[in-house]
Amino acid sequence: VFNNLRYFGYSWMSALFSEMFGLDPAESSAYLALPEVLGLVFTAAVGPAASSLTSGRLSQTPVLRRMATGWGFGLSAACMCFVPLSASPGTATVWLSVNACCLGLHSVGFKANYLDLSNRHAGTMTGLGNTIASLPGFFGPMMAAAALEATGGSWLTVCGLVATTNSVGAAVFVRYSCFQCIDERIDRKVI
User: Fold this and answer.
1) Whole-model pTM?
2) Which DSSP state fits 119?
């Protein structure tokens, strides 16, 4: 879900800015760079803020992970709905910037969840998870192209599909995420 949104943005935002606002890729670049910079700064601040909120109490970790992921995906979905409704590239950039900050919440949400699940095998789990997560990043832009063609170029529909995917991702993680460390179970089966 996360990669679907990221790669949709990388693949299609320049085209959206071209079609909606008449900007060529060079003109769009300044508008599209700002959300990336703000998202990076916000992401760097999220970890220390989350640590101070939980004050090292592991009992609050599942709550934090679920809230960060739920809010991150949910608010990002809302932002994506407003992008194609924007009257100017500046307004669209504001929505994309808020979206980038929402994505920063995932650094303490689902992205950190691999470390909750395993200390000794977190690298393997992250690798497997990222391999699976690359599928939406691969298929998402192609599905956006098909949706644009099927709807006669409706950016609202395409952004709505991305928002729907985010909403489903939020619901699934909040409902089904697990935080129990599996190291001992893995080690018992290996030995």
Assistant:
1) 0.82
2) S
